[in-house]
Design a protein that fits this description.
By secondary structure, the protein is mainly β. The chain contains no helices and 10 strands.
């Protein structure tokens, strides 16, 4: 759901006013943190979290972004057996609500890490419109979720995006498996 939120937040005697746009998300239940079953190869990264021996290989990429009052979108991509991150999503803008199909994501990573730095996304809507988005991660919240034999790292990045010359903000999140 796209929304505009206004109000005040009080923390420890300090009050902060806010007025902005966002996208409300919903969790769809429990996750299998040790791999993906949504058409993915299920291949996991090997080695330590900061290994430079192999390129980072996230198995999920999730995104949610807002471009002011007029446009918001979200979706997810899963690693396929051919190595591409491919998925689907939705877009809500002046043209109404539409699905995003054939969403493809490419990312660059900080040297020697699994923390993503930039994001390039392409997609097309059900109505045939081409969508291209570029993003740069501003801030990162890495989370480690242990599982037997390793851990999944969910790296949630606050990002600045551009689409059709407009600036927006949102979340660019990648999930990496690291085996012991």
């Amino acid at each position: 759901q796209s929304l505009r939120a206004t109000g005040r937040l009080a923390i420890g005697g300090e009050e902060i006013a806010f007025d902005g746009f966002g996208v409300r998300d919903k969790s769809w239940g429990p996750r299998n943190w040790s791999g993906s079953s949504s058409g993915s190869s299920g291949a996991a990264s090997t080695g330590p979290a900061l290994s430079t021996a192999a390129a980072p290989n996230p198995f999920v990429f999730w995104f949610s972004m807002n471009f002011g009052a007029g446009t918001s979108l979200g979706g997810s991509c899963f690693r396929r057996s051919d190595g591409t991150l491919l998925g689907s999503g939705w877009i809500q803008d002046g043209e109404g609500m539409d699905t995003l199909e054939d969403v493809r994501v490419e990312t660059t990573f900080r040297p020697g890490s699994i923390l993503h730095d930039t994001v390039s996304m392409t997609a097309r809507t059900c109505k045939g419109r081409e969508v291209r988005i570029e993003g740069r991660v501003i801030n990162m919240c890495p989370t480690k979720i242990p599982f037997p034999g390793g851990a999944t790292f969910v790296n949630e990045g606050l990002a600045r995006f551009t689409m059709d010359g407009r600036e927006g903000f949102g979340i660019a999140e990648s999930w990496h498996n690291v085996r012991e």
